[in-house]
Design goal:
It comes from Kocuria salsicia. The active site is at 365 (for fru-6p isomerization activity). Homodimer. Its main location: cytoplasm. There is one protein chain. Helix content is 44%, strand content 15%. The protein is α/β, with parallel strands linked by helices. β6, α11 and β7 form a beta-alpha-beta unit. The longest helix has 21 residues, at 159-179. Bound molecules: fructose -6-phosphate. Fructose -6-phosphate (F6R) is lined by residues 57-60, 104-106, 109, 112, 156-157, 242, 246, 366-367. Fructose -6-phosphate binds next to α4 and α11.
Length: 370
C-alpha cells in the first residue's frame, strides 16, 4: 500500500502530481473555460455575494490563506480567512450575501462543522472543499467542490493541502469567470498554468528531493527552525513550520517576512536555521527584492539561511547557505511548488530522528471533538 515508500507520508508527498492533476480533471474545457457543475448555488446568488469567509483548521486553514490572495486578486471580492473554532465565537458578520468556503480534508472536523452550521443559520451559503466523499461537512454544505487527492493516511496532511489549494484556485477562477471583471482575460492563461503544475511538482520531486533530504538528515540536532515568507509564501512558511512541529517535534515558527524587524529578528543568532520562501523575481512588485534583503539581514546576524527560490533567481545565492530551486510559475500558484520541499524536509528530519512520521504522538487524523 505504501508503494515501496518507507511511510505513507512519503508516498503521499509523491502522490501530489496526481492529487493536483485529478483535482483539475474534468473541470477545464479545451476553449479555456471552467465548468464547476458541482457548485449548485444559484448563479444570481454567486453574482451578488459581497464577501467570502474561508473557515478551516490547521493545514486546511493555510490553504484558505493562499486562497484569499488568489480570490481577492482575481475576483475583487473581500475575502477573510478564519480558524473555524474562532469564527463562531466572535459574532461574525455573515449574511445572505456572504459565501462561506469550508475547507476540510476529512469533512468531519467538528470545529469546522460547527462553524458551517453557524454560518448557515445566519443565511450564508456554504461551499465545502473536501477530500472525503459523503462526509458530514459536504453533506451539510450547499455545494461541494471535492478534492481528488485520494485517501490520505498519514496524520500530517500533504497531498490534501495541495489539492485544497488547487480547488480554491478553481473556485476563485470560476467566480471571476462568472462575475466578469478585469482579470477575465487572464483566466484562460491561468488555467493553462494550473494544468502545467502536476509536471512541475514532479520535477521538484525528481530534482529537489535528494538535495532536501541530504540537508534534512544533517539537521537532526536542530533545536528550532524558523520559516519566513511573504504574500502567498507566508501561509507556505506557516505550513512548513506546522509540518516540522507535528512530526519532528522541533520547535518551529512561520513568520511574515515583513514582520521580522518588528520583533522576530531578535531570535536570530549564530547558526539559527531559517527557511525562506522567496517570491518570483518576475513578479510585478518589489516583493522579491524585499525578501532578498531580509535574507541578507538574517545572514548578517549569523542565521543559516535555507532558501526556496524560483529557477533562474541568481540574486539569492549570495546570501544563502543552501538554495533549492523550484520551477517558474505565476506568483499566486507558487505554493503548489514551494510547499513540497518543506514537506520533504519535515518528513526526512523526523525519519532521521527515528520518529513514526505517519502516526505522530498526541495527534489524530480527524478531530471530531470541539
Ligand atoms: C496538519 C493537519 C491538521 C488538519 C486539521 C484540519 O498536518 O493534518 O492541521 O489540517 O486538523 O483537518 P481537516 O482538513 O480534516 O478538517
Amino acid at each position: 500500500e505504501k508503494d515501496g515508500y518507507p511511510s505513507f507520508m512519503e508516498k503521499e508527498i509523491h502522490d501530489q502530481p496526481s492529487a493536483v492533476g485529478d483535482t483539475l480533471l474534468g473541470r477545464l474545457d479545451e476553449n479555456g473555460s471552467l465548468t464547476l457543475d458541482e457548485i449548485k448555488i444559484d448563479e444570481s446568488v454567486l453574482r451578488s455575494i459581497d464577501k467570502i469567509v474561508v473557515i478551516a483548521c490547521g493545514t486546511a486553514a493555510y490553504a484558505g490563506q493562499v486562497a484569499r490572495y488568489a480570490i481577492e486578486h482575481w475576483c475583487r471580492i473581500p475575502t477573510e480567512v478564519e480558524l473555524a473554532h474562532e469564527f463562531r465565537y466572535r459574532d461574525p458578520i455573515v449574511n445572505e450575501k456572504t459565501l462561506v468556503v469550508a475547507v476540510s480534508q476529512s469533512g468531519e472536523t467538528m470545529d469546522t462543522l460547527m462553524a458551517v452550521r453557524h454560518a448557515q443559520e445566519q443565511g450564508a451559503k456554504v461551499v465545502a472543499i473536501c477530500n472525503t466523499n459523503g462526509s458530514t461537512i459536504p453533506r451539510e454544505a450547499d455545494a461541494v467542490l471535492y478534492t481528488h487527492a485520494g485517501p490520505e493516511i498519514a496524520v500530517a496532511s500533504t497531498k490534501a493541502f495541495l489539492a485544497q489549494i488547487t480547488a480554491a484556485y478553481l473556485l476563485g477562477l470560476y467566480l471571476a469567470q462568472l462575475r466578469g471583471n478585469k482579470y477575465k482575460d487572464e483566466i484562460a492563461t491561468l488555467l493553462a498554468e494550473l494544468e502545467a503544475m502536476p509536471a512541475k511538482i514532479q520535477r521538484v520531486l525528481d530534482e529537489v528531493e535528494p538535495q532536501v533530504k541530504a540537508l534534512a538528515s544533517s539537521m537532526e540536532d536542530a533545536g528550532s527552525v524558523l520559516f519566513l515568507g511573504r504574500h502567498v509564501g507566508f501561509p507556505v512558511a506557516m505550513e512548513g513550520a506546522l509540518k516540522l512541529k507535528e512530526i519532528a517535534y522541533i520547535h518551529a515558527e512561520g513568520f511574515a517576512a515583513g514582520e521580522l524587524k518588528h520583533g522576530p529578528i531578535a531570535l536570530i543568532d549564530q547558526g539559527q536555521p531559517v527557511i525562506v520562501i522567496v517570491p518570483s523575481p518576475r513578479g510585478r512588485d518589489s516583493l522579491h527584492a524585499k525578501v532578498v534583503s531580509n535574507i541578507q539581514e538574517i545572514r548578517a546576524r549569523g542565521a543559516e539561511t535555507i532558501v526556496i527560490a524560483e529557477e533562474g533567481d541568481e540574486a539569492v545565492r549570495e546570501f544563502a547557505n543552501h538554495v533549492f530551486y523550484v520551477p517558474q510559475s505565476p506568483t499566486l500558484l507558487q505554493p503548489l511548488l514551494a510547499t513540497v520541499p518543506l514537506q520533504i524536509f519535515a518528513c526526512e528530519l523526523a525519519g532521521a530522528k527515528g520518529y513514526d512520521v505517519d502516526q505522530p504522538r498526541n495527534l489524530a487524523k480527524s478531530v471530531t471533538v470541539e
